[in-house]
Structure formats: structure tokens, C-alpha cells
Amino acid sequence: MADFKPILFKTPKPVGLSRDAIEALAEGVAAKMNVDYDDYYWFENLIKNMGGRTDVATGNASELAIEVLGSGDFTLYSSPLGSLKHDRARIAASLGHYVLHAPAILDGEPGYGMRSPSHPDHPHAPPREARYEAIEFAAGLLMPKAAFCATWEEGGPAACQKKFKTLKSWTMARARRLNLSADTAVPEMAP
Length: 191
What we know:
Low-confidence stretches: 184-190
Number of strands: 5
Shape: globular
Radius of gyration: 17 Å
């Protein structure tokens, strides 16, 4: 029988990249993984191709958004009460933690994994900056700039929500970020 060694977990820490750099990274991940945004299952396929899996957060995992055991070994948790659009946003932000924040832990601290709770007020929640970085990654991944702008020009917010399967609040925040909306005020935490 193999020796069992429990894994210790760290919380995501900010990497300090600009919003534009994070967005470019998200779009680079999609390009590297040959994401076809017209494929209904592109998001699920991306996670699987990166070595991840999704699960519903219940029981001991009810407070988790992501658990990383190693490179290419991670679980992204959806809410048992969430909608498709809400879960995609939550899971995409968790994937942002994996891409942006897990490498520093996995490469820099052998024997450690990474966990992030789903609620920002949880005592083990990552710093606000790390959460914002993950959200920016999610926005760039779920709503790539060029495709989002083209869709916005063709049909406005409703067309974007339909094509990218995102929440109205995320769609409008993305439009403000890209200066497409008449309301150009960018809120503090805009995708």
C-alpha cells in the first residue's frame, strides 16, 4: 500500500498583471486550446482538455470554488442552486485562479495545492486583487474582445448574452470595459 501524504493548501495570491495582460492571457489560453466558441460545449471541453473537472459543491466541498491538487489536476465547483449563466461565470473565475495563481504555489512550494472558497467573506478567501484578476480572466475567456465587439455591434446586449451565455450584469460590465455601452462608467469590479 502506498504511503498517504496529505496535501496542504494555499490561497491564491495576486500576480500583479494589468487587466489588458490578463485579458490577453485568457484569449491566449483559448487560442492554445483551440476553443471553438460556436461549439455549445466549448467551455466544458476546455476544462477537460486542461486536466480539470467540474463538480457540484456539496458536503465538505460546499464552500469551495476550486481545489488544485497539481498541474492538470483540479476541480472547479458549481453551486447546487446556480443557473447555467451564473455557474459559467463562477467556474470561469475559478479557472482564472488556476491559470493565474496556481503556478506560483505548485512550482514554488512543493507539496502544496491551492484552494479558494466561493464566498469573498470566507476567512480563507483570496485577497481582493486576486479575485479581481480571476474575474478579469473569466471575462476575457467567456467574452473575447473581438467577438464580443462584433456581436455587440450586430445586436447589442441581448445578442451578447445569447452568444456568450453570460449574466446580464457581466455582459453590461464587459460592454462598459470595452467602451461599447452608453454608460461608460467602469465599476470597480468590472469583467
